[in-house]
Amino acid sequence: MNINQEQLIIFKTVMEAGSFSAAARHLGKVPSAVSMSIANLEIDLNLKLFNRVGREPVPTAQAITLFEKTEQLLIEMNQWKQYALALSSGLESALNIVVVSELLHTHWTDYITLLAHQFPELQINIFSAPQEDAQKMLNNGVAQFALMFEREQLESNEQFVELKREVLVPVASNTYALAQFDAIHFEQILQSRQIVVASRDRNIRPELLYSKKYWRTDNHHSACAMIKQNLGWGVLPLEMFTENPLLKKHLKILNFADFTPKFEYFVDLVWNRESQQGAAARFLIDHVKKQRKNTF
HTH lysR-type domain spans which residues (predicted)? Predict the structure, then answer.
């Protein structure tokens, strides 16, 4: 049996596109080349993958079962190739790291200091962005690492290690209307303007959005400034109060009466496991994993 990566890509594309011709258009090939590749794959596997009845091929039960394994297999093949390439290439020319805006106050610079000492010739570029934008930068290869909040569902090509817990709190200026109540009901939250940290892409709905009326900003420092000016309430890192004790004179942590929102998150270091990893990236991943093992 001699199955190659191109055959698997073609098979996966046919299954997703629903026809040989649609797969051919997607792959930039002629339909006959796609059909021939599938036929050769069937010979190599000694399996019938598609029933060629009617205008479109119908996948067999065996094809459906194999398709469930194909994406992971392709990821692992890419991982193997990229790892081999990384072993031969040595240190990367630059390392781009994006830190989610609300996490800029964390001790992320400790990792940068460690890399600088270990690889003094390495160029390190740090970016700050809202959570959704940080994920985009990671997925499209602009950043090799992202320091971000945990998410319910990862992309199939992402890998991560937990770093710490982070607490966010709902706050308002001491003179803001909501701050005058010991406990705030959900209807009051709905009707009060929220200052929310969100993606620069206005088509992406902010994650921690509760109010019907809201203003957006891309970082928690500007959000804090607007909240202090009585322009609305918002959700900020609790660590900001430790960093700047004077905030306690201006801001009040709000108590929600009707529900308890999930404002405690794990902070993850995330990377694309299909991307080429140089010596510095591998060093950072190994260091963080060892650090977590020793801590927990």
Answer: 1-60
Q: What is the pTM of this model?
A: 0.64
- pLDDT tens per residue, range 258-286: 877 778 888 999 998 888 788 899 999 99
CATH number for domain 166-265, candidates 3.40.190.290, 1.10.3210.10, 3.30.300.30, 3.60.15.10: 3.40.190.290
Give the 3-state secondary structure of residue 124. strand
Question: How far, in Å, are 68, 179, 197, 228 from residue 189 at the CA level?
Answer: 44, 11, 17, 17
Domain ranges of the chain: 5-80, 92-164+266-294, 166-265
Both tokens assigned to 136: 């985009």
Contacts of 27 (CB under 8 A, 6+ apart): 9, 10, 13, 34
Rounded distance, CA 233 to CA 66, Å? 51
- Maximum Cα–Cα distance for the chain, whole Å? 75
Name the DSSP class of 145: E
Task: Determine the topology of domain 5-80 in CATH.
Answer: Arc Repressor Mutant, subunit A (1.10.10)
Q: Which fold has domain 92-164+266-294?
A: D-Maltodextrin-Binding Protein; domain 2 (3.40.190)
The DSSP line for 153-205 is: S--TTEEEEEEEEEEEEEEEETTSGGGG-SSB-HHHHHHS-EEEE--S-TTSP
Residue whose token pair is 């790892």: 83
